């Protein structure tokens, strides 16, 4: 069967006869019950498809550490772009940060996304997902789009990029950017931005799939509420939290200030916990997805925190990464195959 499949796909395979080795005596560690201990899953995603170099490197790394492969499952349908490898670890690797760091290093070197998770009930009990908005659900930074229309694009963009890299205090940078919008008509600005929203590839498919699975979904943004509410409407989200720009009631012009609580990094984390509490689930049952330094507390609090095409500081501070511009990869990290997704859509 192997030879036939390889021939059909244009591969040439040579089989070498190995010298038979005597079987080692049976021990508790070789007993089949131990296959169900220390179970983990290694998820490998590489688009458009997993290269032979990538697959070899991952399998070699597992072999060198004495990791037993229990099962290999293909998650993608049309191309071999995603695999889930179920493994059980030797006792000395349980909780080893060095092993998971090596897998992350492979991911960076090979241009793949590799996630290493414990295969326990928590993976199947998640009920809530929260998203950052700018450069996560949508491909723009809303404050930059507002600034372009207001004619102060370059000044605001420089402040935004520094804030997302973690070089500026988020609150102070927001205050400075908002001040530059003073005197412009709020309704006109937001109408133009909402008309030109560009959703990240996979955002709509991801949200529609999770909704069918019964997930509650929220956007928690350091951007602005009118746009967050538009994203909520388009994607069918349950909650939307963002900053509110103060508007002069008589003129409809922006005052250059915000009103109400500012969505700081700490408030993002608090809102995640609050929504989980309202929905009656544990924080461990949540997923968070974001790209900026202001998302780090939220990502590290959630049961599964995913840095999506994130800045280097965010990647260094988080365990799970997606570096391909396709949000449907989130589904692979929760163990859902494309085949299952297509059945849900059907």
From TrEMBL:
Family: Belongs to the HAD-like hydrolase superfamily. SerB family.
Organism of provenance: Polarella glacialis
Domain Phosphoserine phosphatase ACT: residue ranges: 40-116
Pfam families: ACT_PSP_2, Hydrolase
Any one of the GO CC terms: cytoplasm
Pathway membership: Amino-acid biosynthesis; L-serine biosynthesis; L-serine from 3-phospho-D-glycerate: step 3/3
One Gene Ontology molecular-function label: L-phosphoserine phosphatase activity
Name of the protein this chain belongs to: phosphoserine phosphatase
Gene Ontology biological-process entries: L-serine biosynthetic process
Needed cofactors: Mg(2+)
Lineage: Eukaryota, Sar, Alveolata, Dinophyceae, Suessiales
Active site per database record: 132, 134
Keyword line: Amino-acid biosynthesis, Hydrolase, Magnesium, Metal-binding, Serine biosynthesis
Enzyme Commission number: 3.1.3.3
Record keyword Amino-acid biosynthesis present: yes
């Amino acid at each position: 069967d192997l030879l036939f499949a390889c021939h059909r796909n244009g591969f040439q395979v040579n089989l070498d006869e190995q010298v038979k080795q005597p079987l080692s005596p049976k021990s508790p560690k070789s007993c089949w019950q131990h296959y169900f201990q220390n179970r983990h899953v290694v998820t490998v995603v590489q688009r458009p498809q997993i290269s032979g170099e990538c697959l070899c490197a991952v399998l070699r790394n597992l072999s060198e550490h004495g990791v037993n492969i229990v099962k290999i499952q293909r998650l993608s349908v049309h191309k071999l772009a995603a695999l889930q490898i179920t493994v059980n670890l030797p006792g000395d690797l349980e909780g080893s940060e060095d092993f998971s760091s090596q897998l992350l290093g492979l991911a960076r070197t090979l241009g793949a996304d590799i996630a290493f998770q414990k295969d326990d009930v928590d993976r199947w009990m998640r009920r809530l997902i929260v998203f950052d908005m700018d450069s996560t659900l949508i491909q723009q930074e809303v404050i930059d789009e507002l600034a372009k229309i207001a004619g102060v694009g370059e000044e605001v963009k420089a402040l935004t990029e520094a804030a997302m890299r973690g070089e500026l205090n988020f609150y102070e940078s927001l205050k400075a950017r908002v001040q530059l919008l003073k005197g412009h008509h709020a309704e006109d600005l937001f109408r133009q931005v909402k008309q030109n929203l560009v959703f990240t590839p996979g955002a709509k498919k991801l949200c529609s799939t999770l909704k069918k699975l019964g997930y509650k979904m929220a956007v928690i943004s350091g951007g602005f509420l009118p746009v967050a509410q538009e994203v909520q409407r388009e994607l069918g989200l349950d909650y939307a939290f963002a900053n509110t720009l103060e508007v002069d009631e008589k003129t409809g012009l922006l005052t250059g200030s915000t009103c109400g609580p500012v969505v700081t990094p700490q408030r993002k984390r608090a809102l995640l916990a609050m929504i989980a509490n309202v929905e009656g689930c544990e924080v461990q049952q949540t997923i968070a997805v974001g790209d900026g330094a202001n998302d780090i507390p939220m990502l590290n609090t959630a049961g599964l925190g995913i840095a999506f095409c994130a800045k280097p500081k965010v990647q260094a501070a988080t365990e799970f990464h997606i570096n391909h511009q396709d949000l449907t990869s989130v589904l692979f990290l929760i163990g859902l195959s494309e085949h299952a997704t297509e059945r849900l859509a059907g």
